[in-house]
Amino acid sequence: RMSARPRAASQDSQEEPDDEVVPYSDDETDDELQSEDDLDRSEDQLPEPEIRPTPAAGEFEDGSGVKVIRANDREYCNQPQFQKKVFLCIKKSRYSGNAIKTYKYNVLTFLPLNLYEQFKRAANLYFLCLLILQIIPQISTLPWYTTLVPLVLVLGITAIKDLVDDLARHRMDKEINNRRCDADILLLSSSNPNSLCYVETAELDGETNLKFKMGLKVTDERLQEEDQLARYNALILCEEPNNRLDKFMGTMIWDSQSYALDLDNMLLRGCKIRNTDVCHGLVIFAGNDTKIMRNGGKTRFKRTRIDILMNYMVYTIFALLVLLCAGLAIGHTYWYESIGSKAWYLYDGLGYSSSYRGFLSFWGYIIILNTMVPISLYVSVEVIRLGQSKFINWDLQMYYADKDTAAKARTTTLNEQLGQIEYIFSDKTGTLTQNIMAFKKCTITGRTYGETNHHWNKYADKKFQFEDHFLVSCIRSKKDPQIHEFFKLLSLCHTVMVEHKGDELVYQAASPDEGALVTAACNFGYVFLSRTQDTITILEMDHEETYEMLALLDFNSDRKRMSIILRFPDGKIRLYCKGADTVIYQRLDANSKNIETTQEALDIFANETLRTLCLCYKDISQAEFDAWSQKHQAASVSMGNREEALDTVYEEIEENLLHFLVSVQNEILYEKKKKRRRLRLKKLRKRFTNSTNPPDSNQPVDDWEKEKRQEDFVDMACECSAVICCRVTPKQKANVVSLVKRYKKAVTLSIGDGANDVNMIKTADIGVGISGQEGMQAVMSSDYAFAQFRYLQRLLLVHGRWSYIRMCKFLRYFFYKNFAFTLVHFWFSFFNGFSSQTAYEDWFITLYNVCYSSLPVLLVGLLDQDVNDKLSLRFPKLYLPGQQGSLFNYKNFFISLFHGIFTSLMIFFIPYGAFLQTMGQDGEAPSDYQSFAVVAASSLIITVNLQISLNTSYWTFVNFFAVIGSIAIYFGVMFDIHSAGIHVILPTTFTFTGAASNALRQPYLWLTIILTVGICLLPVICIQFLYQTIWPSVGDKVRSLKNRKKKKPAFQRGGRSRRSAYAFSHSSGYADLIASGRSIRQRPSLNLVLRLMLKTRN
Q1: Which residues are annotated as a binding site for Mg(2+)?
Q2: Closest CA to 238 of 43, 36, 41, 33
Q3: Which is it for strands 272-274 and 748-752: parallel, antiparallel or unpaired?
Q4: Where, by residue number, does ATP bind (predicted)?
Q5: Which of 504, 510, 551 is nearest to 527 (CA)?
Q6: How far is it, in rounded angstroms, from Cα 885 to Cα 420?
Q7: pLDDT in the model for residue 640
Q8: Structure confidence by residue, pLDDT tens digits, 417-441
């Protein structure tokens, strides 16, 4: 929550909520941020201005929350009271330096830290233990290289990927740290009059218009030269580093005088200085202590749902493996007790008991059946994700030519999560909109105007679109004084700065609304020319006038209005005011005219989605102003509750006003209507308690009530059509995301374009940055980046959906092929006395996942698509399986398990039956172990490669080549390692000499292989046919719609070469839809729930 600072009671405060008391949903998403309660205490405990050259050390140990800085004295901050203990007796400064560090490794730590992180992954640690077991002769049933080769491959590829990612972080850190001082700075003086400094705060608040900061009068007068700056020795007492972008409080003590400091004196990190040649300042916060970095939040390690589920499945496989091995070990114990110990030809002279032999058999089977936990799974997943990321980077339909910016996948680990997004949280200004305001219509004394041209005005903006010839004639004739006052108010009541570039005027406004109104006045002949600290000069049609500015009552989110008090050249004093209709109407004089007609115009403008603004004025006598001015001066220098005092004084003068009306429109250029059909949005109006209650009454009394209110908040939001959160801080944005993640267990995506969106982007499961007008902070913290909001549709509905489907299909098949491969050993155990004998040749076990079955499934994971991109965008219902997680879950896992069990049964028992009492054509029996291993392995390779062919939806030449090539590689390698030549070189390693050539020259065994493959694939073909015809999926229906051929028309017109353009441009009508009756039925809900959080500006 933000601090509940009491405000002055105004007439509208009884009905409007206190915007300082924001919702308490402060789930701490950033552990390193100071608690808001501490911030409140630090503000309350900020010392009164007094001379304190050196604070006592105790003030820093008791949590007083005060930071002390002495100008031009670096050693002052190195005193012991400014340090904190890091480890044992090692201490460092309590405050950050200006350098940042985001990299993870250096030259010395890369290898140990990277290996440590990789072995935190359960599968890698498991295979390391397995490798150690294989070195033990008593239990080793497979050569050590069968595990070492895949393990080194996995660790090496992952390490290279991590190294490349970290080198990119090193380059980014070096680029940022090589910049000039980027910190929160106290502005002392500048080259502009009154030490004004113009800044662009797009990275902080999303606003691209210029704002101005101002140095103190005393520093402006005394700190312009370098020697003066060198002698500057003031003591600064201010708040501790915190994340509040909207507030700063401090005191400067210089030459026995105290001066109040606030946010208007600060240049925050992330601001860009404009139209200012030179400025001088004092660093207050640096590095990670700056306000924008405090709003950045922690960098979180993000994992996809599939990653988490995959780990649990690996644990499940490991549990099954232990159970199988334990069962086989028990079987070997009983077998050796009853049979093995009594067979003289099995005597080995070791003297082991049957129980001990069973114990050794357990570990032997752990080694043999280790492929149930696939080590190549993780490296294959990394390769697929890398390829999917490249496809995002190469997508020309997400390339923005105007800025030469392509989409960028900044991470390679989250692609499939893009296909499971349930809630979207979006920044508004600069993301959904371009924050461009245009003057559209106005109502003056009850009459509405619009549409005119401005060729008569040399200062007119060529882009200005407002057409009303009658209004122009009224202005030029000068007959209507109310119209004259209307546009004079627009040209005078503002805080806009003007820059002259030749004959062109360039306005720098604090908000796009201000810029639109001043530009409108300029186009109608009331041209704002210049301003000083005390005067404003405008051109009123054909003559120039200068007005003395007596007071400026600035806008804030509570007042919802701004006013200016001017002395006219004839001595008359007038107050001009503009603001929201809700606050202006409450301050109108009872004799104001045209209130009803103006209210009707307001309603019409609101229905046209125009943003409305009311203008009003009143004349003030000299005596009334003198009395008010004294009160204003006293409130301006008040050290306690200064803002409250000023608000009270403003209320006194802003009464009994006469009014007009004006409207501007916010042009949403990024969002398209068709997009709204794709992503369904939900809306929320925040609930506040009565603002007349004390602020603390809104707060929960304990953690349980806080938890309950947060849950109710989320439940209420999810019942609405769209969620709109107004005037929220960066941390509060992240808190809303955290609440949805916590209570809905949903996959979230945040998208924004400014530094104020970084925390939200880091908190969500997926963070998307837009490289817009607000700098690169959001992009640097994001997982994905592009230049336009509209590309989010393609990122999710095309790349996200494809990535999810591909990954699910890959994992289902990968588990299947490993079960089918490994469980053959299990069935073979029942025929070899559970003696840990392998069913295949050793090199086949080593190369199965590396060479023989990896490429086809990798290509499916990279290239497969059930429907093309156009259909993916056209039918958003295709996105539903990802949200529901229906393509990969424990149900699919067990289906793959049982499918693998079935295949392994066929792979073992069909050749086993075929080898019983069999005679080859040469009169010899081929029923030896090596021939059986060759036939079983050949059947397996052909089966699993044809199985992936049945699962492939999108065929290319590469897929065809991969399937045929994998089978060909298997036979080529098998004949090589079974040859006599390689046996002569390494006789103990290659022991299947001549087995392949001997077995595969028998037609009977080829028929056995064909029969085995056919029986394995036939049920799959039948089940797929039944599902596509009886229970088709959404993808099946869309594909059938695509493949449906259009009937030729029964009648064709004569063959004229020239045809109407209408025939080419007009699309087919809706006759079929109307005739079917579907157009009058209720449209079925697609349940595509992608939520949206919008940030609005006042």
Answers
A1: 427, 429, 753, 757
A2: 43
A3: unpaired
A4: 427-429, 514, 555, 578, 611, 727, 733, 756-757
A5: 504
A6: 7
A7: 64
A8: 999 999 999 887 666 666 677 788 8
End-to-end CA distance of the chain: 19
| Residue stretches of the annotated binding site | 427-429, 514, 555, 578, 611, 727, 733, 753, 756-757
Report the C-alpha gap between 870 and 28 in whole angstroms: 42
| Cα 316 off chain centre by | 32
Assess contact for 826 and 832: CB atoms under 8 A. Answer: no
What whole-number distance in Å separates Cα of residue 1095 and Cα of residue 907?
60
Question: SS3 for 600?
Answer: helix
Nearest CA to 521 out of 439, 456, 451 is that of: 439
Q: How far is CA 96 from the centre of its chain?
A: 27
Which tokens belong to 448? 């509405």
Residues making up the annotated binding site for ATP are: 427-429, 514, 555, 578, 611, 727, 733, 756-757
Rounded (10°) angle between helices 1003-1029 and 929-950: 30
Q: Would you state the pLDDT for residue 565? A: 93
Contact 857, 949 (CB under 8 A): no
Q: How far apart are CA 203 and CA 236, in angstroms?
A: 27
Instruction: Report the distance separating Cα 618 and Cα 493, nearest Å.
Output: 13
Q: 232, exposed or middle or buried, with CB in 10 Å at 0-12, 13-18, 19+?
A: middle
pLDDT for res 1082: 41
Is there a contact between 310 and 811 (Cβ–Cβ < 8 Å)? yes
Question: Other C-beta atoms within 10 Å of 655: how many?
Answer: 13
CA dist 335 and 342 (Å) reads 10
DSSP 788-842: -TTHHHHIIIIIIHHHHHHHHHHHHHHHHHHHHHHHHHHHHHTTTTT----SS-H
DSSP 1040-1063: HHHHPPPPPPS------S---HHH
CB atoms within 10 A of CB 719: 9
Give, in order, the Cα–Cα distances in Å from 176 to each of 101, 287, 313, 492, 978: 10, 11, 42, 42, 59
Nearest to 325 by CA among 120, 149, 141: 141
The total number of residues written for the chain in this structure: 1098
> Would you state the structure tokens that stand for residue 261, as one six-digit string?
């400091």
Say what the pLDDT of residue 462 is.
53
Residues designated as active site: 427
Is the distance from CB of 154 to CB of 378 less than 8 angstroms? yes
* CB-CB contact of 938 with 945 (8 Å): no
Give dist(CA 357, CA 336) in Å, integer.
Answer: 8
Q: Say if CB 40 and CB 65 are below 8 A apart.
A: no
Residue with structure tokens 């009648």?
1051
pLDDT recorded at residue 698: 65
Burial class (CB in 10 A: 0-12, 13-18, 19+), 201: buried
Round to whole Å and give the CA distance between 756 and 519.
29
pTM score, whole prediction: 0.69
Task: Show the CA angle centred on residue 1017, arms to residues 1016 and 1020, nearest 5°.
Answer: 115
β strands within 174-304, DSSP E: 184-190, 196-200, 210-214, 235-239, 250-254, 257-261, 266-267, 272-274, 279-285
Residues contacting 406, CB < 8 A, separation 6+: 393, 394, 395, 398, 399, 400, 786
Phi and psi, residue 783, nearest 5°: -95, -30
CB 33 within 8 A of CB 241: no
Q: Do 797 and 678 meet the contact criterion of CB atoms below 8 Å apart? A: yes
Phi, psi (deg, nearest 5) at residue 859: -70, -35
Residue 412, CB-side half-sphere exposure with 13 Å CA sphere = 18
- If you ran DSSP here, which 8-state letter would residue 1091 be given? B
Beta strand extents in 71-209 (DSSP E only): 83-87, 90-93, 184-190, 196-200
Is the Cβ–Cβ distance between 851 and 973 less than 8 Å?
yes
